[in-house]
């Protein structure tokens, strides 16, 4: 396994709060294999009432509106997060946002992430904060697990990909 795949595995371990043994990790050669493995480990159910990415966007939008006082129509994927600071520092904004949402696993935008957008924050939520996207009273679902796997892989792959593509051969992950 190369550095990219190790980092992706660590992201999954953090997101789903589980440990993936090396022998299991080596058998996961495609996103589909990873989805199937994680679903079996999490006892995930097949269906879900709402697209997990859409659910995540709604949660982010509600948190951004509550913590910054903007209207829901101002929260769009392409909008930079700095628009929500409203005269506060980046860290003051982030503290208010985390207090409103409970998204404690999300990392605050760094000093060099001045142009980080709502879409970037949604990607972060779908990888490291995926536990927040699902209803805690409901079991893990296959669509939520799939969204987290695909989002974490997408951080390393700059093109569209299919779940059956091989991590190393097709997606060129080292």
What does this 3D model show about the protein?
- Helix content is 51%, strand content 0%.
- The model has no long low-confidence stretch (mean pLDDT 88).
- It has two domains: 1-45 and 139-174, no CATH class; 52-132.
- The radius of gyration is 17 Å and the shape is globular.
- Helix 1 (3-16) packs antiparallel against helix 8.
- The longest helix is centred in the middle third of the chain and has 17 residues, at 52-68.
- The chain contains eight helices and no strands.
- The termini are close together.
- It has 174 residues and is an all-alpha fold.
- The protein has helices spanning 3-16, 22-27, 31-42, 52-68, 90-101, 118-127, 130-133, 142-154.
Note the main sheet.
none
Specify the structural class: mainly alpha
Helicity level: 40-55%
How much is the radius of gyration in Å? 17 Å
Roughly how many Å apart are the termini?
7 Å
Poorly predicted tracts of residues: none
Morphology call:
globular
Structural domain count: 2
Average pLDDT works out at 88
The helix tally amounts to 8
| Order of SSEs | HHHHHHHH
Strand content: under 5%
Strand tally: 0
What is shown here, in short?
The protein has 174 residues and is mainly alpha-helical.
